[in-house]
Structures are given as structure tokens and as C-alpha cells.
């Protein structure tokens, strides 16, 4: 007997990519369980699937940075008490990425690159340990949202958030719609999607001089003020620090909540189209976001 649940959850996360850098992503999870019927004449109660398995997936990947441990660019080092970790991703030509964060901010994937299959294998191993004995098989599938327009991949951190959004390097694959005088503007949508493709959206309040950060020895060799920007903040979960290439960074004067992003885009577009009513619908991953007018 098989039990299926489509749209079990959406994983919003970022991952390290040798070519693209730090990439924000949103993947939808579908699941199929194989097994014999239990004493309730069920493979597993839907409530447990939606609550227990979703919680495992969220704890394992959601709002984390996925690190490909087998890639030659990757180096991981624990601090003396094992509560925080340095992650160095030594991309060449001034494009390296460096983090110092609490251990829970990362998911370490034993693969050379982060792919859907690599993440499926990682999640299957974690979930199967928690399933009852009558559940003999587990199928996971991951997919992206079908978007009839333009979108961008962004990474950010929300230091004021009291949940996992405070992690400095988590992200989203996000749709954007823009209208002038209630008429949709695909040209503007494409313009901003291109400008923010694979971007880190940082807040000016969190910018710190690169030499002031807790850099590993590798980071000291690979990062300079001319090529990189540094961020640091203390949130409820601990100290978060990140160094990213300036070419892959976009600085905001505000926080990087989706509300602030939508407002920023509306104001920027209004400056170029002052005689028209601007509407921006900015998504944060799948099926949620903010609307701003100017």
C-alpha cells in the first residue's frame, strides 16, 4: 500500500555553488510512503505525516545554508567549543564566500555539488530513522514552482526575527510582478529579475569592515575590502558573520524583509516613472509575499 502527500512543505534555503555563488532556492516537497497497514488500517496517519515528517524536513534543510562537503572549494572548521563553525568556499578570482555561524545554520551535504538528488538522499537518510516499522519505503520528490513570468534567487538574513529567518544565509526563489497604472510590465520584471539574479541582499546596518570579522586563515588570504563586503550581527541564535563578493551583493538601507524589498522596488520604479501609479508584488518563495504601492 502507498500513501502520498503532495505539497507537504516548501523548503526555503540557500546553497553554495561553484559557478553562481550563494544561491537562494525554494523547493516544493512531495512524498510517497510504502508499507503495510497498521492497527488503524493506515500506513501512517496523515496528521503525523504532515506534522512529524514536515518537521524533520524543516529542521534538516529549511532556512539553512547547504554546503557541498565534497567540493574542492569547501573547507569546514569547528571553533573550540563546537557551537559555531567556519565555512570557506574558495572560489577563485575574488569570488570566495566565507561564514562564521552557529552550527544549526548549515546543512552539510556529502556531494560535490548541491542537486535535488543529493538533497533527496540526505533527507531520506534522516527521515527513515524516524518512521515506524510498518513503513518500508520512502519516496521523496523535489520540484520548483511553475512561474509564468520572471523571478530571481536571493539570499538574506533577518537579525530581528525570532525564528530561523535570523540565519544570515538562507534564501528564496521568488516571483515578481510589476504594474504601472494597473498594467503589468514584463520589461521591468525582467530588468529587476536580471539585476537580482543570485544576489545577496544585505542591510547597511550589518556591514562590518572585513578585517574586523572572525575570519579563518583561508578567509584572511582570500578576502580584501576591494573585492568583498562583510556582514555581522548577533541574534537570538548567536553570532552570524558572512563575507561575500561585492559583485554578488546588493546593499539595502533597510532590513531585507519581503515588505522592505517590495517597498524598495516600488520607490525605485516610481523615481523612473513619477507620473504613474506603481504596484509591486514581491514574493518570498512560494505563495507568500508583500505588495507595495508608490
Task: List descriptors.
294 residues; Tetrahydropterin Synthase, Chain A; 7-stranded mixed β-sheet; 5 helices; alpha+beta
Give the topology.
Blueprint: E1 2-17, E2 21-35, H1 46-60, E3 65-68, E4 74-78, E5 84-89, E6 97-102, E7 106-109, H2 116-128, E8 135-143, E9 150-156, E10 170-180, E11 183-184, H3 186-195, E12 199-203, E13 207-208, H4 217-222, E14 228-235, E15 238-245, E16 249-252, H5 258-272, E17 278-283, E18 289-293
- CATH H-level superfamily: 6-pyruvoyl tetrahydropterin synthase/QueD
The biggest beta sheet, please? Answer: 7 strands, mixed
Order of helices and strands: EEHEEEEEHEEEEHEEHEEEHEE
Number of structurally distinct domains: 1
And the CATH topology?
Tetrahydropterin Synthase, Chain A
Q: Beta-strand percentage?
A: 35-45%
Short description:
By secondary structure, the chain is an alpha+beta fold.
Can you put this structure into words, describing what you see?
It catalyses: 7,8-dihydroneopterin 3'-triphosphate + H2O = 6-carboxy-5,6,7,8-tetrahydropterin + triphosphate + acetaldehyde + 2 H(+). Pfam families: PTPS. It comes from Idiomarina tyrosinivorans. The chain has 294 residues and is of the alpha+beta class. The protein has a single domain (2-174, 199-252), classed as Tetrahydropterin Synthase, Chain A. The chain is 20% helix and 42% strand. The chain contains five helices and 18 strands. The strands form three sheets. Strands 9, 10, 11, 12, 16, 17 and 18 form a seven-stranded mixed sheet that branches. It has a six-stranded antiparallel sheet with strand order 4-5-6-15-14-13, with no helix packed on it. A five-stranded mixed sheet has the order 7-3-1-2-8. The mean pLDDT is 92.
Amino acid at each position: 500500500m502507498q500513501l502520498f502527500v503532495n505539497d507537504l512543505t516548501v523548503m526555503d534555503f540557500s546553497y553554495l555553488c561553484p559557478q553562481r555563488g550563494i544561491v537562494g532556492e525554494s523547493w516544493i516537497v512531495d512524498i510517497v510512503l510504502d508499507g503495510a497497514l497498521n492497527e488503524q488500517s493506515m500506513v501512517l496517519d496523515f496528521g503525523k505525516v504532515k506534522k512529524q515528517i514536515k518537521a524533520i524536513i524543516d529542521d534538516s534543510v529549511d532556512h539553512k545554508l547547504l554546503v557541498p562537503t565534497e567540493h574542492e572549494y569547501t573547507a569546514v572548521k569547528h571553533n573550540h567549543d563546537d557551537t559555531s563553525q567556519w565555512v570557506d568556499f574558495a572560489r577563485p578570482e575574488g569570488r570566495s564566500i566565507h561564514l562564521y555561524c552557529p552550527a544549526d545554520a548549515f546543512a552539510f551535504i556529502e556531494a560535490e555539488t548541491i542537486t535535488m538528488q543529493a538533497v533527496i538522499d540526505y533527507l531520506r537518510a534522516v527521515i527513515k530513522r524516524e518512521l515506524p516499522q510498518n513503513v518500508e519505503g520512502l519516496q521523496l520528490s523535489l520540484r520548483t514552482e511553475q512561474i509564468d513570468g520572471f523571478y530571481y534567487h536571493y539570499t538574506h538574513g533577518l537579525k530581528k526575527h525570532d525564528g530561523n529567518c535570523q540565519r544570515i544565509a538562507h534564501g528564496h526563489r521568488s516571483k515578481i510582478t510589476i504594474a504601472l497604472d494597473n498594467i503589468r510590465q514584463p520589461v521591468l520584471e525582467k530588468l529587476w529579475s536580471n539585476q537580482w539574479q543570485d544576489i545577496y541582499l544585505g542591510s547597511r546596518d550589518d556591514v562590518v569592515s572585513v578585517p574586523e570579522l572572525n575570519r579563518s586563515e583561508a578567509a584572511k588570504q582570500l578576502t580584501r575590502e576591494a573585492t568583498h563586503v562583510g556582514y555581522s550581527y548577533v541574534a537570538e541564535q548567536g553570532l552570524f558573520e558572512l563575507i561575500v563578493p561585492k559583485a554578488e551583493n546588493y546593499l539595502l538601507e533597510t532590513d531585507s524583509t519581503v515588505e522592505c524589498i517590495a517597498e524598495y522596488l516600488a520607490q525605485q520604479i516610481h523615481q523612473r516613472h513619477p507620473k504613474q501609479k506603481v504596484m509591486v508584488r514581491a514574493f518570498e518563495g512560494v505563495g507568500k509575499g508583500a505588495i507595495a504601492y508608490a
